UniProtKB/TrEMBL annotation:
Keyword RNA-binding applies: no
Listed InterPro entries: Acyl_CoA_acyltransferase (IPR016181), GNAT_dom (IPR000182), N-acetyltransferase (IPR051531)
Protein origin, superkingdom: Bacteria
Domain N-acetyltransferase: 30-174
One Pfam family from the record: Acetyltransf_3
Native source species: Dyadobacter psychrotolerans
Keywords: Transferase
GO MF term set: acyltransferase activity, transferring groups other than amino-acyl groups
Protein name, UniProt field: N-acetyltransferase
Length: 186
């Protein structure tokens, strides 16, 4: 079974990004991100309506880390004082099977800048090298062609298409599953 070490919280850096723990200071940015209908279009969760909801989401992220069932990083640009521009993480960790589900969201102002490619590479490396994961999966809305492109560019393969797999905002929505498997034996 996986041995997860999230204390201290693992801060990850790339050439342009800092991936860090989410704190109360990020509440306003989380609200701007998760309250943005364009950013939330394919997420399959309700758009945040209040700052309190953003604060509760941060509490949930912190509890997931504490309970070692998930880890979410805030994405901040090193060179700009833009605040939080997105989040990325393993929101479901299947410890007995050495598997995790990756999820991410980026503010529309940052789309097209290769930020998510950079973040995914770093988080996938962390998952395989530090968490000892065997596989990482991503579930996306089939209409989100940009997310599919990002996953494929980062070595993920499309594994499945499920019709009406989840219920979101009053309707059943299809989902595609992408997966990446490490070449390291356990």
């Amino acid at each position: 079974m996986l041995f997860l070490r999230f204390d201290p919280f693992p801060v990850l850096e790339t050439e342009r990004l800092v991936l860090h723990a989410l704190t109360w200071e990020n509440s306003g940015d989380i609200f701007l991100l998760r309250g943005n209908p364009q950013a939330m279009k394919y997420i399959g969760k309700p758009t945040l309506q209040t700052l309190w909801e953003a604060e509760q989401l941060i509490v949930a992220y912190q509890e997931n880390v504490r309970d070692k069932i998930g880890i979410t990083w805030g994405i901040t640009l090193k060179s700009e004082n833009t605040g939080l521009v997105g989040t990325i993480g393993f929101h479901k960790i299947d410890r007995p099977n050495y598997r995790a589900e990756i999820g991410y969201i980026l503010h529309p102002d940052q789309w097209g800048k290769q930020i998510m490619n950079e973040a995914i590479r770093k988080v996938v490396d962390y998952g395989f090298q530090e968490m000892d994961l065997h596989s990482i999966e991503a579930k996306i809305n089939p209409e989100n062609s940009q997310s599919a492109k990002v996953l494929l560019k980062n070595g993920f393969e499309k594994e499945a298409y499920f019709k009406q797999a989840f219920y979101s905002e009053g309707k059943f929505v299809d989902t595609e599953v992408y997966s990446l498997i490490t070449n390291v034996e356990h």
